[in-house]
Write a structure and sequence with these properties.
The complex is a heterodimer of chains A (73) and B (255). Chain A is mainly alpha-helical and 73 residues long. Chain A has helices at residues 4-13, 17-25, 27-33, 38-46, 49-55. Chain B is 33% helix and 19% strand. Chain B has nine helices and ten strands. Chain B is globular. Classes of the chains: A mainly alpha (73), B alpha/beta (255). The interface between A and B is large, with 32 and 43 residues.
């Protein structure tokens, strides 16, 4: 079970340079310091973006595509 | 001349970690921020940087012509700039790469005498170079949007790298969730087969959007593309064919 708000807060916390440095140097301790659950840590550890997106409530979000002018027909 | 201004920035591809300092400053310092949210995470981040924001994503509607949507996005930014506001228009990735409303907003702002500038950002192609170990300067690199590549029958040199954006939406002209367009993929392979053998290696690439996540990289022979897993963010990378010989006379003419 993933706590959506905890995950959101964790990713938002990476906006701080020191927090990002800690995550890059030692992801496990950074996740523990943020109070993430074992499930959330496993999710981030998996690097599975589709599951991360779903857990964040972003399923269906992500990159949208662009129609280049002149190619409409 | 309006006292307003327009600054167009990109957030990069990977959330938070690829925003440049100057883009961040432009967002924080704006009177009004317009953005196209890629989800609740980005929305919350932007709202934390500036209290005056407007998400333009609701302007996308199923079946609505995309160019109409892009025009309205530019309109919203310009109305605020004409009113004297320092406007920041925030796009995903590099704001100048495959982002029609950004260029249109800049063009129209400057035509009206409004100061307008675009700040570069990290694009998905930049991520591709890093993740696949490609140096675009080594053998040359040609980038096209996939539909444009086909309908204009773009000429290219298969002895240089080829990057094709948006392979999932070839021929798709309005907002849709029914992707990929397999007919478009088959047309692409038919066009490429004139230049490459069917077993020429290729890569379907999607840059990672979240910290800690890996890009999606699928290596396959070109012929396998129509049946491969392709999503809206997929880019096709085709490595160069064998290098042709250097022309000694061309080289001699240079020195």
């Amino acid at each position: 079970m993933h706590a959506k708000s905890k995950l959101l807060d964790f990713f938002l916390s990476l906006n701080d340079g020191e927090t990002l440095k800690r995550f890059q140097a030692d992801p496990e301790s950074a996740m523990s310091a943020a109070g993430l659950s074992d499930d959330d840590k496993a999710l981030i550890r998996s690097g599975d973006e589709a599951r991360v997106r779903e857990a964040l409530g972003e399923a269906g979000a992500g990159i949208s595509y662009v129609i280049v002018p002149g190619t409409e027909s | 001349m309006s006292s307003g201004s327009l600054t167009v920035v990109g957030t990069g591809i990977r959330f938070i970690t690829q925003i440049t300092p100057e883009a961040r400053a432009a967002i924080e310092g704006a009177d009004k921020v317009f953005y196209i949210s890629s989800g609740p995470l980005q929305r919350r981040w932007i709202e934390q940087q500036n209290p005056s924001t407007e998400d333009l994503r609701p302007l996308y509607q199923i079946g609505r012509p995309r160019l109409e949507t892009y025009r309205e996005m530019a309109d919203r930014a310009l109305v605020a700039a004409r009113g004297g506001a320092r406007v920041c228009l925030v796009m995903y990735g590099h704001p100048g790469v495959l982002v029609h409303p950004a260029h249109e907003a800049i063009r129209r702002a400057r035509a009206e005498g409004i100061t307008a500038v675009m700040l570069p950002g990290v694009s998905s192609e930049d991520c591709l170079f890093a993740d696949l170990g490609v140096d675009p300067g080594a053998r040359g690199c040609q980038s096209f949007e996939a539909t444009d590549f086909l309908v204009y029958r773009r000429r290219f040199d298969p002895r240089s790298a080829l990057v094709l954006y948006q392979i999932a939406v070839i021929g798709v002209r309005a907002h849709t969730l029914d992707l990929p367009n397999k007919k478009g993929l088959r047309a692409l392979i038919a066009a490429l087969s004139a230049h490459y053998p069917e077993d020429h290696p290729a890569v379907i690439y999607t840059a990672a959007e979240y910290p800690g996540c890996a890009p999606r990289i699928t290596e396959l022979p070109l012929a396998g593309l129509p049946e491969a897993a392709v999503d809206a963010g997929s880019t096709l990378y085709v490595p160069p064919m064998e290098q042709g010989p250097l022309d000694p006379k061309a080289f001699a003419d240079l020195v």
